[in-house]
Amino acid sequence: MAKHKISNKIRTLRFMRGEMTQQQLAEQVDVTRQTIVAIEKGKYSPSLELAFRIAQVFEVPLHEVFSYDDKDAS
């Protein structure tokens, strides 16, 4: 079975927004800093609602924050 991976550019976007901290982003989207850490590291995939809230903070479309790689990882 193929592995699928959702990647993100949150860390890059945070730094492009005046070096926004993980805590600041977490507060703006109403989650814990640990959740942001896990999402950035690819350890956790956010809900669709949370993904949209993160994109709204950065004022970019969802596909500029998250991407889905459907290539076979094996």
Task: Give a summary of the structure in a few sentences.
The protein is mainly alpha-helical.
Overall description:
- With about 70 residues, the protein is mainly α.
- It has a single domain, classed as Orthogonal Bundle (434 Repressor (Amino-terminal Domain)), CATH 1.10.260.
- Helices cover about 45% and strands about 10% of the residues.
- It has four helices and two strands, in the order βααααβ.
- It has a two-stranded antiparallel sheet.
- The chain starts with a strand and ends in a 5-residue tail after the last strand.
- The relative contact order is 0.26.
The percent range for strand residues is: 5-15%
N- and C-termini, Cα separation: 9 Å
Please state the CA-atom Rg, rounded to the nearest Å.
Answer: 12 Å
Contiguous uncertain segments of 5+ residues: none
Q: Helix coverage percent of residues?
A: 40-55%
Compute the number of structural domains: 1
The beta-strand count equals 2
**CATH class call:** Mainly Alpha
Counting helices, strands and paired strands, the structural category is mainly alpha
SSE order and pairing:
Layout: E1 5-8, H1 10-16, H2 22-29, H3 33-40, H4 48-58, E2 66-69
Antiparallel strand pairs: 1-2
Helix pairs in contact: 2-3
Features:
74 residues, mainly alpha, 434 Repressor (Amino-terminal Domain), two-stranded antiparallel ribbon
